[in-house]
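Follow-up to my post from last week.
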Amino acid sequence: MKDDIILLGHGSGGKLSHQLLDELIIPILSQVAQSEQNDAAVLEGITGERIAFTTDSFVVDPIFFPGGNIGDLAINGTVNDLAMSGARPLALSVALILEEGLKLAELREILESMKRAADKAGVKIVTGDTKVVPRGKGDKIFINTSGIGLFDHDLRPAGSAARPGDKVLINGSIGEHGMAVLASREGLDLHSEIATDSAPLNAMVAKLLAAHGAAIHVLRDPTRGGVATTLKEIALQSGVDICLAEESLPVNAAVAGACAILGLDPLFVANEGKLLVIVAPEEADSALATLQGCEYGEQSAIIGEVTAVSAGRVMMRTAIGGLRAIEMLAGEQLPRIC
Amino acid sequence: MKYSTEYRDPELAKGLIAAIAKDVADYAGQITLMEVCGTHTMSIYQHGIRNLLPAQVRLISGPGCPVCVTPIGYVDQAVAYARREQTIVATFGDMVRVPGSSSNLQREKAEGADVRIVYSPLDALAIAEKNPDQSVVFLGVGFETTAPTIGGSLLEAEKRGLKNFFVLCAHKTMPTPMIALASDPELKVDGYICPAHVSAVIGSDAYRPIAEGFGVPCVVTGFEPVDMLRGIQLLVRQVLAGAARVECEYSRIVKPAGNRTAQAILFKVFEPCDADWRGIGPIPNSGLQLREAYRKFDALTALPVEVEEPREHKGCCCGEILKGKLGAKDCPLFRKSCTPEHPIGACMVSSEGSCAAEYKYGDC
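User reply:
Got it. Predicted complex:
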């Protein structure tokens, strides 16, 4: 392409728009040439009684951060939302809102990582849209992805399905995505690079459901608000108490250190490649082994259990034996002052 | 990391809990200990320490959160700067949500004001350097822990010849309010858990007037659970023995005379002044103002603005909570109209405020 930045004309629908699509977006994201594309993608061969459908918008700042960028985040986020319903992600749409002045080299890098993420997750990008807003009316790039997924089984894992006695599992160290973004946003020199954990979890979910079936009661990805907020949502939906054991919670040393410096609690920090699994007690150990055998699951751990039917409390047994309540994240986590 | 892991050793902590319980087993009275540091407040909740202690030992929170003790008029002043043309307000994160009389900085930012969150006054200095046509007002809030870094940033501003960097000063100092609370007849404080970071600067000797003059035992402790429990044990033992002296559990960081370098910077730039403490009122010599030679950096003198008449919110108990006379749960607004999403008082806003800690971690 001739230009090296996004111009308003790239969103005009005219010649420049076609050039952007033909020369950059379609060659990277899609196998179907623009000349063969219609107003809507038509998906064939879908059978069965249920499909999963979800959407998510991505506005992360900065758009590049250690371990990833807004592009792979947008793919993994929607893939994971589909996977948490138990569905097999099939197809995604990608809508780009670009700010005038965005560097084409950056857009290319984002598109290429979207393609890699989609390939890794085994999902196709079948339709999309591109708009350009004047400089100052957006923030470089916003991405919306929507996706549909199919069910190869009759299982219905849900936030309302936790039962007393169930065990709570997670597939690894918490708080990495939030701290990676925060550290790069604020230019914090933490002397250790914390990378995002952004990853597709659909293969892991497929293995869990195939091996443990109806014993998998709840699947949720603890994104914004962190593990604490997601568990609180589950406790409220299911009407149960959940108790975590502090010493079993995986937190890598760099995240723990950065959180300590900034006065943040890793339990409330966002994840993008983590999965909370609530499983029937008799299958807990074997489900843990399944998770540990998966890519992105080596550090999996049993972190707590569902203790009783109640109004929905989440508690943590601290390492020294104390008990503390865990509430949802309120407002933003702010760095402390002293 | 290993150093702090040792101070989180569960077995050591459990041993201390058992020892404290044994110490007070035959004691019929109540021992009330006050912490005056927001990070201690958080640590007590975070580790669930309160419900591990015997019934005779009661922990209460004092005026230890710098955001919480900052009067509402200061927030109004900051809001006025946010509304000023060609002005950037730079602040530590906690201040942006503190409610003023009719607005707050978060709202001003949403309406277009340039309010930036920084992690260090040096970041604010960099903003001033990058924006020579704008005035940058840094909100100087905090105790002796933040004051030296702000002092250092002013020395640096002078060196770089910056003319657009200003500080809105509301620094407070310890241990003056601890003396005020120790002499309050309504409030029976049997011992002080003295702040850790502040003490690293001012030194543990600073608490001798409280122990020796008012007969209240003082122990400086660190933030880890083993630190906290050791500090509590030392205080309980002093109370039971009828003693009142200063002890330092946190001697790996805190020296009797403190950090002389930090003190030198602090007193080069600042001098003591009377200060208004939210909830407690004016206390002589409990704040810091810029010395004559540095007053050109004082936002109040250099950039006069019109400020609304401060109005406290009706029913807010922050004052009584900051004095330790009420707990968060005693306030009629707590969890009802006052929540972290819609805070009414400062104790709910700051992550280290006692209402926010109670809301977030509450005792089970």
